[in-house]
């Protein structure tokens, strides 16, 4: 069973190369406002997270994933479903 | 209370900045006269049209015009109704028959635009718990149709067979899956490796839709599209297309051999809740489709013109979207938005119209897009090349040695 406690630090590792603005990365960091990611970068990042966990994060789910914590919750929920 | 338009301010500023630089407005060009599929008059001057998607030059075909005039006189200006109410006339049935014949398929369904055909298919065919797997570079109508429906939407990297396969493997067992591909991708005019992609999608048990909007008329022996050329006709469940390119009118369609296909007429909302095409439009379209089937000479000429323009622009030092002419679209890459606008203006001043692709359509790319027409003469193509070279000098566009 994956838990948010293990997923969150790994997600932060994956997101770090995308953090050009040098923002502090934690569960509350937002992709659009804090990280200022454009749509192409979001696609690349999503693909990396999907590969890490061998899962799919459907495009229609993305608007609900505002923060790194939201993604961690989604990964845990989908993988443990 | 905030003005709801405030969110558009960055776009308004960008547009006003472009206009303040004294350049021509690429997005509000008015064609005062259309002389032929390849010539128009703008501001009293004749220009060569090189950005119309009028691939087969059917807009002024005498048989097409005659069919439209007859239908206009006999059936009136419009249908004033939905296809499922009072809006199916003899011409709509004839148009669907022409499509069934052209594609050699059992079923054909005509929509009021190509955009609506994709909206209708994507939104209706896959429901909650189903998956639509699409190429990241899919047309806006495919994305919008997905957004209208309730399926889970999964993207794969543009034209990447391995990435498609990887994503298909991650879909939970038991979910319905539609894989959506395009024959020709309209931004840079590259074609999909349909043979490989269809094989991967079939192996995963998915249904397959191919949008052949930019390929109908001149790919494959019968001009059906890239899927015909790739030899995968028997494995494709739906072909989506448009009348607003090679057919030369406006409208959209889906053709299929699926035995339950006709139910889409009840469940595809963009088909049900809009007025059907005017009688003249379906009459023109049917006449055009019947002629396209046998337009072998036009096809050959279109390919020749496309390959020649591609080769010549490349030799002149322009940076193009594809290594070779994969379709009748030739996209010229610009270094930035400002140079793109300058080059577009210089081309118009030279008497050449191409599409300036708005940056929001192709994030990270600035494109001037040419599309060839079977009616472009060899002399016109030479003229286009010469004018491109002069426009590059005027616009200060650096060319490769």
TrEMBL record, chain A:
Residues 2-79 form the Carrier domain. PROSITE patterns: CARRIER. It comes from the Bacteria. This is Acyl carrier protein. It comes from Pacificimonas pallii.
UniProtKB/TrEMBL annotation, chain B:
GO terms for molecular function: transaminase activity. Signal peptide: none annotated. The keyword DNA-binding does not apply. It comes from the Bacteria. Residues 47-388 form the Aminotransferase class I/classII large domain. InterPro entries: Aminotrans_II_pyridoxalP_BS, Aminotransferase_I/II_large, AON_synthase_class-II. Its cofactor is pyridoxal 5'-phosphate. Keywords: Aminotransferase, Pyridoxal phosphate, Transferase. PROSITE patterns: AA_TRANSFER_CLASS_2. Pfam families: Aminotran_1_2. Belongs to the class-II pyridoxal-phosphate-dependent aminotransferase family. NCBIfam families: SerpalmtaseAlphaP (NF047603), SerpalmtaseBetaP (NF047599). This is Aminotransferase class I/II-fold pyridoxal phosphate-dependent enzyme. It comes from Pacificimonas pallii. The lineage of its organism: Bacteria, Pseudomonadati, Pseudomonadota, Alphaproteobacteria, Sphingomonadales.
């Amino acid at each position: 069973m994956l838990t948010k406690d293990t997923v969150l630090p790994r997600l932060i590792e994956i997101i770090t190369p995308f953090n050009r603005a040098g923002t502090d990365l934690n569960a509350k960091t937002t992709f659009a406002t804090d990280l200022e990611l454009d749509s192409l970068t979001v696609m690349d990042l999503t693909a990396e997270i999907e590969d890490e966990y061998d899962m799919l994060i459907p495009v229609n789910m993305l608007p609900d994933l505002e923060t790194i914590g939201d993604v961690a919750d989604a990964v845990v929920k989908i993988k443990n479903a | 209370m905030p003005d709801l338009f405030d969110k558009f301010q960055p776009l308004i500023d960008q547009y006003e900045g472009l206009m303040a630089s004294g350049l021509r407005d690429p997005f509000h060009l008015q064609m005062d006269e259309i002389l032929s599929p390849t010539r128009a008059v703008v501001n009293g001057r004749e220009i060569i049209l090189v950005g119309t998607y009028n691939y087969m030059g059917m807009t002024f075909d005498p048989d097409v015009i005659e069919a439209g005039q007859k239908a206009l006189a006999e059936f009136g200006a419009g249908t004033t109704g939905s296809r499922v109410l009072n809006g199916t006339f003899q011409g709509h049935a004839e148009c669907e028959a022409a499509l069934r014949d052209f594609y050699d398929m059992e079923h054909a369904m005509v929509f009021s635009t190509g955009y609506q055909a994709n909206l209708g298919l994507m939104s209706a065919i896959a429901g909650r718990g189903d998956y639509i797997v699409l190429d990241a570079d899919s047309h806006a109508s495919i994305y919008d149709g997905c957004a209208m429906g309730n399926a889970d939407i999964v993207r794969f990297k543009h034209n990447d067979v391995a990435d498609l396969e990887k994503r298909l493997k991650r879909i939970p067992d038991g979910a319905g899956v539609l894989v959506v591909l395009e024959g020709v991708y309209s931004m840079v005019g590259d074609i999909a490796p349909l043979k490989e992609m269809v094989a991967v999608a079939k192996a995963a048990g998915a249904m397959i839709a191919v949008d052949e909007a930019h390929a109908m008329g001149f790919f494959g022996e019968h001009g059906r599209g890239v899927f015909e050329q790739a030899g995968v006709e028997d494995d494709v469940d739906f072909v989506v297309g448009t009348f607003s390119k090679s057919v030369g009118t406006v409208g959209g369609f889906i053709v299929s051999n699926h035995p339950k296909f006709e139910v889409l007429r009840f469940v595809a909302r963009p088909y049900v809740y809009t007025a059907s095409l005017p009688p003249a439009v379906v009459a023109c379209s049917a006449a055009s489709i019947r002629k396209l089937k046998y337009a072998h000479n036009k096809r050959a000429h279109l390919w020749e013109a496309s390959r020649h323009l591609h080769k010549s622009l490349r030799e002149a030092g322009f940076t193009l979207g594809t290594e070779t002419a994969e379709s009748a679209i030739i996209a010229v890459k610009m270094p930035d938005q400002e140079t793109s606008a300058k080059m577009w203006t210089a081309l118009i001043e030279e008497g050449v119209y191409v599409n300036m692709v708005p940056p929001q359509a192709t994030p990270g790319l600035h494109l001037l897009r040419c599309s060839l027409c079977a009616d472009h003469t060899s002399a016109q193509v030479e003229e286009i090349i010469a004018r491109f070279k002069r426009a590059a000098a005027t616009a200060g566009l650096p060319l490769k040695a």
